[in-house]
Amino acid sequence: MAKGTDKLMLIDGNSIIYRAFFAIPPLTNSSGLQTNAVYGFTTMLLKVLEEEKPSHILVAFDAGKTTFRHEGYAEYKGGREKTPPELSQQFPVLKDLIRSFSISQYELPGYEADDIIGTLSRLAEEEGREVVVVSGDKDLLQLASDKVTVLLTRKGVTEVEKYAPEDVNARYGLKPEQIIDLKGLMGDPSDNIPGVPGVGEKTAVKLLQEFGSVENVLDNIPNLKGKLRENIENNVDNARMSKQLATIFREVPLDRTVDDVAWSGYDAASLATALRKLEFKSLMERLDLSGADAGSGELAKAEIEYETIIVGDDAGGWEQLDASLPDADTLIIEAAGDNPHASEGIGLAVMADSRCFVLAFPQLKSEKAEALLTWLSDPEAAKAGYDLHRAELVLARAGIKLCGQTFDVQLAAYLLDPTEADPSLTGLLQRHGLPSVASDESVYGKGAKFRVPPTEELAAHLAAKADAVRRLKPVLEDELERLNMSKLYHELEQPLAVVLAGMELQGIKCESGTLQELGKDFQARIEGIMSDIYQQAGTEFNIGSPKQLGEILFDKLGLPVIKKNKTGYSTDAEVLEKLEPYHEIVRLILHYRQLAKLQSTYIEGLLKEIRQDTGGKIHTFYRQTIAATGRLSSQYPNLQNIPIRLEEGRQIRKAFVPSEPGWRILGADYSQIELRVLAHISGDDRLKEAFLQEMDIHTKTAMDVFGVPKEQVDANMRRSAKAVNFGIVYGISDYGLSQNLNITRKEAGAFIEQYFSVFQGVRKYMDTIVEQAKQDGYVTTLLGRRRYLPDIRASNFNLRSFAERTAMNTPIQGTAADIIKLAMVRMDEALRERNLQSRMLLQVHDELVFEVPEEEFETMKVLVPQVMESALELDVPLKADVSFGSNWYEAK
């Protein structure tokens, strides 16, 4: 952006951000931060920088609510509404962004931004410099002179009107210095400046054109007539005071000069980082900052040249590829389809030194691909890639094994920031200031990727991706090392990806006949419940229609209306649960919905996922890079959310059986792992005692909170204790506990306070971790997994409260996730070391599921809990409960 010569630009920060906030529709980034005011300010800034090309810039802000003007008139600006919190929280964000532009900013207690601007503009004028003032406040027009031009924002913030002295005269028929007289007479409601009642702008201008100033108007009161004379005569002091309040003070004791605010342009890397954090992608494109980022060093600037070679039986290139494989270090697999178990590979790229070899996936079946297949399965060959877990499954589908010392940039980036808004390869490149690559959509078209031959366009696309991975690898490795997460990556997450691929390829057998029988049973129950509902309602209706259901419940049966939405009565689960005590029909509707969900999502849904080509198995896909806490996510299908609170839901597990005759299913479940982690992290003596003495933790909690011996703890006491115990883990609130226990918020709040008064170590932990998060901006698990909390200092109460609860529960939940991942890696090692046939099939929250041959029952009953309980040493023992059965239902 070009710079001018000796032109000072002064920006009224408060005025512009206020105008931007109310002019730009609400806008938030992925972390929930309001950014509309910052966005509007930035668009205005870019516009005036480009048009005015200043050599010096300063953004002035008000330093507080009280200024020297309040000393003479306490009601100054007294009518203004309180700044919305959604705007207040954007001030520090804006100030950070201004620093990223390398632009000076200034504020001084006791003075307004106007006064700072007035003083600096005077100093610049005296030095013969040209000055441009940017504001949305007409008061600043008083500064216009031969050297000072005022830009007033109009119609939001991006359109401005220029005011030199002649423009002020054309608009108002006044000189710039008479603007303060204009305000003296007409006042200014926005600043609570009274002026003279009954005198508007038109009358004030007419008076000033005749008499020149407020003082002269007051001297000529006898020459005025009627009501106007009376109003001015009764408000002489107000007129003088109003002029004084409107006068910009131009002698502020500044500690800087015009030369101190010189601007030589922004640093592209710093600005790119700031705009990327705010997710202002359009502004980054406008400034062409996609290849800039702080921290990327010279790598982003370096032009890495490579040759793209298409390999194929027709294209040739096999000999060159074979000769280069000893130096190959990067791999890209392109596949059609989201589910890797059903994805068809379409392309492959291998990068070695300055060459990238690209071939169509079917070419891997060529006799000439032998050396490449050897390299792919070589356990000693280093291979970097993006989402190598998926790549391994896609290759396996084609009968090709992927092994080696792998580095997955997607997995590494997830560890570095699990809340990253755009974890795609393009997003990672932008985040780290590296040259971007074309989107898949621009190459393959919308929707599903097309199977294409290795055209030059495809080859260039795959080569660019491989080059991008190669560039990202050293950057991410350095970041992992700097943040002490290298061990977490290399000893946990990367080995786990291999373990997961093995489990996914193995799959778990699911009997379609069992599901179909359950489906028939569910359907019969659904029809029976529908009949009961119609009988209670006195008519048949569409139970699945919220509108018809609302009419039955509220219009016909007269149940109390809990909540309404845009389309009428709300009949969501929360509303129905509150209505359950009022009428039998509500209980029936809730049960109907539960069974209908089981029938459609789990019976019909699972039947579709059974693959006959693998012996009637279901193959789920585990995602390591989804949950911010480190938990695994299951897809295609999701086997982690089969509802087991309902007996009908638990019945679905009967369909999951061993794949070999005479084998059994083994289920191993961590017992209260999160509460054990809490006992360790908090160091609370009472919690630790309960686990060390192998007491029932909920009974122990009830004893301590209610102050009764074990014999007097009844079911309700234990239920309450259990609710607050798990509430602590997930971020307790009086509202949440009141809903769980069906008590008032006051009662729930008192219960929580009583809990904390007993478990003081837990309270201390909660307070300490929040303070630590505010200081660091993130929290960590025991193994060093981070979660960033950008809203931990937010002025918005809801955002801040959520971040505080997240700070409390992430170290607990995240450590529990780390522990079961460790157990899986070590369990896989133990099975291989002992050459056991038993197979690990599933991970479902805190549970591991195995299939075990009869001769290994006794071994696995001892080995599995031993490995799980020794995964990580805590101050309290970990405990894993193990059970066997002929199916998953029986093994629970």
From TrEMBL:
<feature type="domain" description="3'-5' exonuclease">
    <location>
        <begin position="309"/>
        <end position="481"/>
    </location>
</feature>
<dbReference type="InterPro" id="IPR029060">
    <property type="entry name" value="PIN-like_dom_sf"/>
</dbReference>
<dbReference type="InterPro" id="IPR002298">
    <property type="entry name" value="DNA_polymerase_A"/>
</dbReference>
<keyword id="KW-0540">Nuclease</keyword>
<dbReference type="Pfam" id="PF01367">
    <property type="entry name" value="5_3_exonuc"/>
</dbReference>
<dbReference type="GO" id="GO:0003887">
    <property type="term" value="F:DNA-directed DNA polymerase activity"/>
</dbReference>
<dbReference type="InterPro" id="IPR043502">
    <property type="entry name" value="DNA/RNA_pol_sf"/>
</dbReference>
<dbReference type="GO" id="GO:0006302">
    <property type="term" value="P:double-strand break repair"/>
</dbReference>
<dbReference type="InterPro" id="IPR008918">
    <property type="entry name" value="HhH2"/>
</dbReference>
<feature type="domain" description="DNA-directed DNA polymerase family A palm">
    <location>
        <begin position="649"/>
        <end position="856"/>
    </location>
</feature>
<dbReference type="Pfam" id="PF00476">
    <property type="entry name" value="DNA_pol_A"/>
</dbReference>
<dbReference type="InterPro" id="IPR020045">
    <property type="entry name" value="DNA_polI_H3TH"/>
</dbReference>
<dbReference type="InterPro" id="IPR018320">
    <property type="entry name" value="DNA_polymerase_1"/>
</dbReference>
<keyword id="KW-0227">DNA damage</keyword>
<feature type="domain" description="5'-3' exonuclease">
    <location>
        <begin position="6"/>
        <end position="264"/>
    </location>
</feature>
<dbReference type="InterPro" id="IPR036279">
    <property type="entry name" value="5-3_exonuclease_C_sf"/>
</dbReference>
<dbReference type="InterPro" id="IPR020046">
    <property type="entry name" value="5-3_exonucl_a-hlix_arch_N"/>
</dbReference>
<keyword id="KW-0234">DNA repair</keyword>
<protein>
    <recommendedName>
        <fullName>DNA polymerase I</fullName>
        <ecNumber>2.7.7.7</ecNumber>
    </recommendedName>
</protein>
<dbReference type="InterPro" id="IPR001098">
    <property type="entry name" value="DNA-dir_DNA_pol_A_palm_dom"/>
</dbReference>
<dbReference type="InterPro" id="IPR036397">
    <property type="entry name" value="RNaseH_sf"/>
</dbReference>
<dbReference type="GO" id="GO:0006261">
    <property type="term" value="P:DNA-templated DNA replication"/>
</dbReference>
<keyword id="KW-0378">Hydrolase</keyword>
<keyword id="KW-0269">Exonuclease</keyword>
<dbReference type="GO" id="GO:0008408">
    <property type="term" value="F:3'-5' exonuclease activity"/>
</dbReference>
<dbReference type="InterPro" id="IPR002421">
    <property type="entry name" value="5-3_exonuclease"/>
</dbReference>
<dbReference type="InterPro" id="IPR002562">
    <property type="entry name" value="3'-5'_exonuclease_dom"/>
</dbReference>
<dbReference type="InterPro" id="IPR054690">
    <property type="entry name" value="DNA_polI_exonuclease"/>
</dbReference>
<keyword id="KW-0548">Nucleotidyltransferase</keyword>
<comment type="subunit">
    <text>Single-chain monomer with multiple functions.</text>
</comment>
<dbReference type="Pfam" id="PF02739">
    <property type="entry name" value="5_3_exonuc_N"/>
</dbReference>
<dbReference type="Pfam" id="PF22619">
    <property type="entry name" value="DNA_polI_exo1"/>
</dbReference>
<dbReference type="InterPro" id="IPR019760">
    <property type="entry name" value="DNA-dir_DNA_pol_A_CS"/>
</dbReference>
<dbReference type="GO" id="GO:0003677">
    <property type="term" value="F:DNA binding"/>
</dbReference>
<keyword id="KW-0808">Transferase</keyword>
<dbReference type="GO" id="GO:0008409">
    <property type="term" value="F:5'-3' exonuclease activity"/>
</dbReference>
<comment type="similarity">
    <text>Belongs to the DNA polymerase type-A family.</text>
</comment>
<keyword id="KW-0238">DNA-binding</keyword>
<dbReference type="InterPro" id="IPR012337">
    <property type="entry name" value="RNaseH-like_sf"/>
</dbReference>
<keyword id="KW-0239">DNA-directed DNA polymerase</keyword>
<keyword id="KW-0235">DNA replication</keyword>
